[in-house]
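idk why but the lab printer keeps eating my pages so im just putting this in chat instead. protein + flavin-adenine dinucleotide:
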Amino acid sequence: MNVSVVLFTSDLRVHDHPPLRSAVAGGRDVVPLFVRDPAVDRAGFAAPNRLAFLADCLADLDRALRERGGRLVQRSGDTVAEVCAVVREAAADEVHMAAGCSAFAQAREERLRRALEAEGCRLRVHDAVTTAVPPGELVPQGSDHFAVFTPYFRRWAAAPLRTPLAPPRAVRVPPGVRSGKPPSRSAVPGVSPGLATGGESEGRGRLAAWLARHGDTYEQRQDDLAADATSRLSPHLHFGTVSAVEAVHRARRRGGAGAEAFVRQLCWRDFHHQVLAARPGAATEDYRPRHDRWRRGPEAEADLAAWRAGRTGYPLVDAAMRQLAHEGWTHNRGRLVAASFLTKTLYVDWREGARHFLDLLVDGDVADNQLNWQWVAGTGTDTRPNRVLNPVRQGRRYDPDGAYVRRWLPELAGLGAREIHEPWRLTGRDRAALDYPEPVIGLADGLARFRAARGAPADPGG
Ligand code: FAD
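predcted complex ->
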């Protein structure tokens, strides 16, 4: 037997792909395999935007493999059962895959290892495929993970990274392995109209073009909402169509403060992944319980509905939420302000917000979404858990002339910089002509309620 199976999961690329490169080494035949598993859907990952983006990624991966003489075998069903079936069909003796960090990925890997053992087949799990530094590789004294970002970043920045791998020149797939019908983006209902295109070609092109155009200025412009100058690589990193290792290498090679600031953001991604790998329960449970008794009932439901619809009466929050609905993506500063508003000003459970984000985000990722939500809610790794972002001040600072708000809230398009972040200040006919809601709550009232609920002074975070 001289056949390997490569199970693709969140690593849908041929460049810098250790499992694929190991599998083809020594001239072995390879079955590149992707399994569309209903259990992934049941675990809450099957949002239309991600399914549509995934369809692009699979089509592009299949194309890249065909250029090398191979193809992508696609199956539907239980991952473990399908991998075992392919192992039998191809008479394979080893399966390669990338390590995952969620509870779901860890359990899948364990089940697969046991099932393959029974088939007489070896599972080889590769690190540093979906993250730059593998979760668990860097640990502080006396703990199994870093709970604070800055010391993690210091260690991470000094850690050696593996060298990015070239794609294999040829991929030889043994005959007779059945493949199901590939998914099609156009067949997915409910996709955001402005959803980005997926796939490795798109992701690699974006990384190169973005580093060339914005790599030098990222540090100054990463929070400028209207400039839209961030990389928008998050869906590509989530689906692995861009390698995190390669992104770090390329940014470092470019050098400069902008590229270094970008690398620091990539470290945030690894940071959250190492927290989740060590504490898989943090996907649903408070990482640091604050004994919150989140608001429930009809009033809280109404506030949540207004937040989801982008109708809170706070322009920056609403603009971020409308962008999210339209594109399946929104700017980090918008995510921070919208999440702070829901969890602190409205005092609604972070899990409600995280669920809504996961329903829409094309980059929706258990580690990055849930742990960022916890960070903002103050139940996570933020060392200032009671900071509250003021959407008016944030608007003035990060969208000073209101261009971002005007882009997403056409009903405010006629307002000038002075009133765009506080439309309630308009009076008379100007106010009456505006089809825009009054604020769902006054900011001072929200702050007072949050302070009382946490039993601690709220930290006006800006
Ligand atoms: P850039 O500014 O270009 O940054 C480069 C890369 O660094 C990003 O693509 C991303 O992979 C990583 N990164 C940047 N900031 C963070 C961060 N705070 N945490 C983790 N990684 C980061 N990111 C996701 O990838 N998936 C999510 O589900 C997700 N949910 C979020 C929920 C909330 C409430 C908040 C506040 C943030 C969330 N983020 C999430 C982090 C961040 O907002 C996005 O990664 C970023 O906006 C993506 O845009 P970009 O690719 O242009 O980022």
